[in-house]
Amino acid sequence: MDRRQAASREQRPVEVILADDHPLLLRGLRQLFDEDERFLVLATATDGERLLDAVARFGADVVVTGWVMPYLDGAGVLRALRERPGAPRVVVYSGLEDPELPREVRALGGAGFCSKQQPPEALLETVVAVAAGMMVFPYLAGATPADPFAQLTERETGILHALAAGGTSIQLADRFGISPNTLKFHLKNLYAKLGVGNRTQAVALYLSHAPRR
Q1: Could you tell me if 19 and 45 are in contact, meaning their C-beta atoms sit under 8 angstroms apart?
Q2: What fold, for 154-208?
Q3: Of residues 98 and 25, which shows the higher confidence score?
Q4: How many alpha carbons fall within 13 Å on the CB side of residue 153?
C-alpha cells in the first residue's frame, strides 16, 4: 500500500464481506460490523461458493469467513482467492480448537485468524489491522516450513532481495515507492512468515537457502 492508497484508506470505511454457515451468527456479525463506522458490509454469504460470487460481484477490502462451510470450505475459499489478481485479504473466524489451523490459514495465503472464543472486538481489530496491510495470527510454535520463502508475496520477496543487497530502510522505501511506515508493515509480515526476529536473521536465512534456489 503506497501513500496515496493509505490516504484513501483513511478517508473511507473498510469494505468487508462476511461468510458463515450459521445464519444467527452471520446476522450477529453483520450487526457488529454495521454498528461500527469504520466498516461497510457489502454482502454476506452462508457458504463458500456464494462468498466467491459476492467477491466477484462487489469486490472488498477484507473477507471474513468461517472455516467449516458447505459446498466450499474456508480452505477452498483461500485457494480460490489467492489465484485472483486484486483479491481481498482474508480473515478466518473459527471456533475450531485446532492449534494447527492458524498455521494452515497462513500457509494458504490468509492474512489473519481470529478465534470465536475471543471477544467480538478482537475480530474488529483484526480486520482493521489486516486492511492496513498487516498479518494477524496467534503465536505459532514450531519450525518454519522446509521452504520458508514459498509463502512470501512478490513484494515481500523483492524487499528480502533488497535487504540482502544491503539497502537501508530509506532506500528500500524509495525504491518500492512506499512510506517508511508501510515498509515497516511489510518487514513485520516478512519476519513473521520466515520465523525470524530481525533483518540480520532474515538475510542470514535467505543466504543459507540461496544456493538451492
Answers
A1: yes
A2: Arc Repressor Mutant, subunit A (1.10.10)
A3: 25
A4: 21
Dihedral, 190, 194, 200, 205 alpha carbons, nearest 10:
-130
5-62 pLDDT tens trace? 444 455 789 999 999 999 999 999 999 999 999 999 999 999 999 999 999 999 999 9
List Cβ<8 Å contacts ≥24 apart for 205-213. Answer: 205/148, 206/149, 206/160, 206/163, 206/164, 207/164, 209/147, 209/148, 209/149, 213/149
Domain positions in the chain? 3-131, 154-208
The grid coordinates listed for 185 are: 508493515
Q: Residue 73 — pLDDT band, cuts 50, 70, 90? A: very high
Q: Is CATH 3.40.50.2300 what the domain over 3-131 is classified as, yes or no?
A: yes
Q: Is 162 left (phi over 0), alpha (psi -120 to 50) or beta?
A: alpha
Give the three cell numbers for residue 34.
454495521
| Mean pLDDT of the residues in the chain | 85
